[in-house]
Amino acid sequence: MGVETEIIEISLRALIVSGSATLLAAVFGIPIGVFLGLKRFRGRSVIKGFFNSLMGMPAVSLGLVLYLLWSRSGPLGFLHLLYTPMAMAVGQAALVTPIMVSLVTGTLESVDPEIRDLARTLGASETQASIAVLRESVNGLLLAIIACFNRAIAELGVAFMVGGNIRSVTRVLTTSIALETTKGELALGIGLTAVLLVIAFALNAMVHFVQKRGIPLVD
Amino acid sequence: MGNLTELKRPVIWFVTLILAASVSTLVATYYLGVGPFTRTRTRLVVSTTTSLYDTGLLDIIEDRFEAKYPIDIYFISAGSGIAIKYAQRGDADMVLVHAPPEERTFLQSGYGVCRKIIAYNFFTIVGPETDPAMIKGLGTTEALKRVAQAGRRGEAFWVSRGDGSGTHIKEKELWAASGLNWSSLRNEGWFVDAGASMGKALQIANEKMAYTLADMGTYLKYYADKLISLAVIVEAGKELLNVYSAITVNTTYNPEANFDAAVVFTKFLISEEGQEVIGGFGQGTYPRKLFYPAAELLRENTNATLVGWIKEEAYIEGEECPKQYQNGHKELYG
Asked: How far apart are CA B173 and CA B179, in angstroms?
């Protein structure tokens, strides 16, 4: 396989893996974040603090824990997850879900409480009032999603430990950069870094564009 | 203007929906391994040492092997220490390493069988061309003693891999043969414990103008790519022999190990084609061979001195693979 084809292949894989990870994190993290952001209950600040601290988990440590979990001699070895892109996606999802939760919670908390009161005054039910608040926080949600994606596609520890950086199977941008650097192919390493940054910038620009123009839901 | 805006919203929604549906389908087929992503080959996981993988040799071997057999090789390159750990934990079907002491434990503890020596080359002590410790031309043991003395006088530095790799294990052996203890040496100021791969260690040694033990393959590659300007100071000699072996994981310990595919791959590695790929690697790019094929050498005893050295440095209980670990594959051993 030529170098160019390989670069396209690993970039596509990085996008799919990190994209799926972000999706998973959104599915699990947004409901939790919304709940934490809107409802007031005892122990709320403890749970918030818990997710905030999880954001500080080093990727390589999480990678090690997941490797021990999914290893053939580990408790979840029967899943045969190791060395597959799925493992990388799930692992990255585990890494970024705390980020999703924390950012979504923060967004919802910062929505003007008058919006909720106004909706209730106009006769909205609890659910409808919550939806009204959600509408206002769409920009914040988008920011949370893109922040999670950025973290996922740029991380190395999880991808390396549970993926194994296997050629044509689990090699992605970050693991390639690490490999090429240890091989002494520094120019290639810089090239791959540029590719990763271009992808990140392009996606961020697209999201910014959407945020500015607004999306149909909000109109 | 009003009509246009009326039309725009549903169109945007429609396009977004189509896009989302296509992306979801793509992602789903990717993970389920169907359609264009179907897996038709059996999987062989080989954990290996970085010094073999980083030179690029294994990628070529993989291409040649996969062109002939319906087996997908997954190379996990991490370092001899963790390569063996992966095998013990059942995450690899086979290991390619160069650490005879660890290999012996691996066989004796029942994890590995069918050990086969596939290649060899030499370690070398590289260092600054100025050779401040004046060790050029000396034997390894004497050279290391001089390096330590020069280091303590503040005239030289030494970089150690410090990462449990095959090279690191050899380094510790060599220090022991010189009467010095690696564990106490690493506390001295001139001794740099890098905790890194061969490439990184070479780069650190280059920066500090230090001596270090390197495998010839990685050294030649880095030198050819002009990443380092260190020179070969001490080379060849029995103690610097670097022998690469393939060991298969025992199904008694791990019933899920892909034993058959591992044996097929081992046979390929010692076949004429496999040995040709190993010996011919880097031809034209490097001034000398990075790896020397070992199968014929051991079988035909074509170089008695060399064979003698390999027997001394890399044989286990006096044999390449003692009978109790041959696991019914006598044909591998002629």
From this structure: 10
- The answer to whether residue B66 neighbours chain A at the CB level (below 8 Å) is no
The number of distinct structural domains making up chain B is 2
- CA B15 vs. chain centroid, Å, equals 50
Which member of B9, B30, B75 has the closest CB to residue A16? B30
The pLDDT, as a whole number, for residue A167 is 87
User: Which residues of chain A lie closer than 8 angstroms to B227, CB-CB?
Assistant: 184, 186
CA-CA distances (angstroms) from residue B162 to A119, B128, B194?
65, 21, 6
User: Which of these ranges, A40-54, A110-124, B89-103, B182-196, has the smallest mean pLDDT?
Assistant: A110-124
The last residue of one of the domains, among B239, B266, B297, is: B239
- Whether A215 has a pLDDT exceeding 70, the answer reads no
CB contact under 8 A, A186 and B45: no
Instruction: Return the bridge partners of B192, or none.
Output: B159
Nearest CA in chain B to A80: B91
| B74: nearest CB among A85, A164, A183 | A164
Identify the weakest region by mean pLDDT among A128-132, A152-156, B21-25, B246-250.
A128-132
For residue A77, list chain B residues with Cβ-Cβ distance below 8 A. Answer: 90
Same domain, B245 and B234: no
Q: Are B79 and B126 in contact (CB under 8 A)?
A: no
pLDDT band at A216 (very low <50, low <70, confident <90, very high): low
A85 interaction partners in chain B (CB closer than 8 Å): 30-31
Matching residue, tokens 């549970």: A162
